[in-house]
Amino acid sequence: MNDYFKKLESLVDKTELEKLEKIKHPTVHRFIYEAIVLCRPKNIFICADTPDEIAYIKNMAIVSGEESAALITPGHTFHFDGPQDQGRDRQTTKFLVPHGERLNPVLNQIEREEGLKEIFSLLKNSMRDKTMIVRFLSLGPIDSVFSTPCMECTDSWYVAHSVDLLYREGYKMFCDMDEVKDIFKTLHSAGRLDKNRVSLDWNKKRIYIDYLTDTVYSVNTQYAGNSIGFKKLALRLAIRKAHREGWLAEHFMIMGVKGQKNRKTYLAGAFPSACGKTSTAMLPGETILADDLAYVKEINGECRAVNVEKGIFGIIQDVNPKDDPLIYEILTSPGEIIFSNVLIKDGRPWWLGMGRELPKEGRNYTGDWYDGKTDEKGERIFPSHKNARYTVSLKALPNCDSALDDPQGVVLSGIMFGGRDYSAYFPVQEGFDWEHGIIAYGVSLETETTFALVEEEGKYEINIMSIQDFVSIPLSEYIRNYLAFGKKLRKVPLVFGVNYFLRDLKTGEYLNARQDKHIWIKWMELRANGEVGARKTPTGLIPLFEDLRYLFKQILDKEYTQEDYQKQFSLRLKENLRKIERIERFLQNQIPDAPEETFRILEEQKKRLLQAREELGEYITPDNFSVV
Ligand code: SPV
Ligand code: MN
Question: Ligand 1 center to residue 189 CA distance, Å?
Fold first, then answer.
């Protein structure tokens, strides 16, 4: 055995040590040894994924007070994060950058040695009166080219429990692993806790990502997006690995869409938050394979993808029987669910937008809550936080896709990119080819923050592929890798741009109902199988009226009229030209070294738009575009 294992012999109890002995990887022993020496836990618990150990973790989450089972519905527990710890934290999340290197200026970064010194001083002795739990997991299905081993040392039973719902168990994989693979590692401590078992030193919250060693350090925080290393934190590491190895690590949902004769077509989608990602993946009658993160690889010329995770850490606000019947049903039925930062009253969880009147008092993340309670700034505290969440295993959902754990992944036939665009892009359109789609819809993904009839500057946020915050390599390299990936494929997925938020230019009304997204999804399914035609516009291929009329009737039992079609699928020249200008300006400022194709494709689109304006005017109805 290696030197680190020998050093562990004097620090770890025999029963726990035996579990570590089965793992041959010195990196694992070293990581645990260094975590112990730094954090000085009172006890060490190694989870080898036996049912008894998993049950013990769940029980300890309650015994420790981090979760409570005081809810009427069996299997339900709740957890609170502190008032200053209710979401991902851009300010305190930083890359550790070796001396002489620089990442994109938009990314928070700190010189590596300095950062390590700081975070080590915060982690020092942080587990003195606690147990350090060690969990081994797999990102992606087990026994697959996608499997990525990962491990976390944490002093939070809530974290150890949450990962059980969200990631595949990996102890056996670690034992079987002989080759030296990249392992993503997280060391987390919630730090000192107050009487409500909430991190006390939130003002010393730090989340540092060391890409040199594939390690995440997180301290004085409990919010799962900060404390579980495998959401957006490991995504940052995975993006670097994917770039080195020529695949894609993405902020994607994946869904199975039903077609003719029980055919199933898989589509992936990237949307910035609050642009319809989960509600698309959860459309009734279809299946969900992933809701947040995907790894995508070329295998034998096919574009294959897996869910990095196996559960959902989802936003609970506005989940109600009308808009999200499937999730609502799950959240109100017996089964293992962790609610976080909701209101608790009468043994039940309550949240904003649940479709019922909320109690006037109860317990929430601020302690005892009553209607009218304000914070120290005098601002009203809502009964549940807007980022309140539920954690649930995908397998608990009746619409969970059967290929969730398929080691081969699923073949992606289409990828969609969707932002909040009130004025320019069509509700749905298809790129002319991979490059065009990736640049015109993915790189150009914009979200508007307020609706302005008169366009104002500063209301748009560009969020490339909805992943910009996490791109840990130069953005130009990220785009280059995407374009090159398409070239490797024999069967290239279609690329779609969707926009659920198009508004009438005069009245400001939305031109589509929430349910209409189902039609666009079904149209993509038909396109991917070569069953319907399209009209060619300067920005992409759009549906034919007859096909939409048929789909609206068949899927939603709605009469779709020529007038609807004209409103939704007329090309708006001024708005589209402005959009390109904004994107080009952004690229010139932020990514001047973007691949040459990026600028070329946008220039070509601009030329097509200008020519169309010359020939047909400012507002062009769809019948002017030829059928292809
Ligand atoms: C998101 O905010 O995009 C999430 C939740 O999926 S978090 O884990 O916080 O990233
Ligand atoms: Mn997400």
Answer: 20
Taking CA atoms only, the protein residue closest to ligand 1 atom 1 is 273
Q: Which residues line ligand 1 (CB under 6 A)?
A: 88, 225, 231-232, 273, 292, 313
Q: What is the pLDDT of residues 86-141, one digit of tens each?
A: 999 889 999 999 999 988 888 899 999 999 999 999 999 999 999 999 999 999 99
Q: Is 70 helix (H, G, I), strand (E, B) or coil?
A: coil
pTM: predicted TM-score of the whole model, two decimal places: 0.96
Looking at the CA of residue 88, tell me the nearest atom of ligand 1: 9
Residue 587 is inside which H or E element, if any?
helix 573-590
- Residues with a known catalytic role: 275
Q: Specify whether 231 is located in the same domain as 328.
A: no
Task: Say what the pLDDT of residue 451 is.
Answer: 53
Tell me how far the alpha carbon of residue 588 is from its chain's centroid. Answer: 28
The residue type at 372: G
pLDDT tens for 31-52 read 999 999 999 999 999 999 999 9
Burial 517-530 (b: 16+ CB within 10 A, else e): bbbbbbbbbbbbee
H-run or E-run covering 15? helix 14-21
Q: Counting atoms of ligand 1 from 1, which one is nearest the CA of 223? A: 9
Q: Please tell me whether residues 240 and 321 are part of one structural domain.
A: no
Note whether 170 and 219 are same-domain residues: yes
Number of domains within the chain = 3
Task: Name which residue sits closest to atom 7 of ligand 1, judged by CA.
Answer: 225
* Residues 467 and 270 sit within 8 Å (Cβ to Cβ): yes
Q: Which ligand is nearest to the CA of 341?
A: 1
Q: Give 146's Cβ-side CA count (13 Å radius).
A: 28
> How far is 316 from 365, CA to CA, in rounded Å?
15
Are the C-beta atoms of residues 254 and 267 closer than 8 Å to each other?
Answer: yes
Does 82 map to a domain? no
The residue whose C-alpha atom lies closest to atom 8 belonging to ligand 1 is 225
Q: How far is the CA of 45 from the centre of ligand 2 (A)?
A: 30
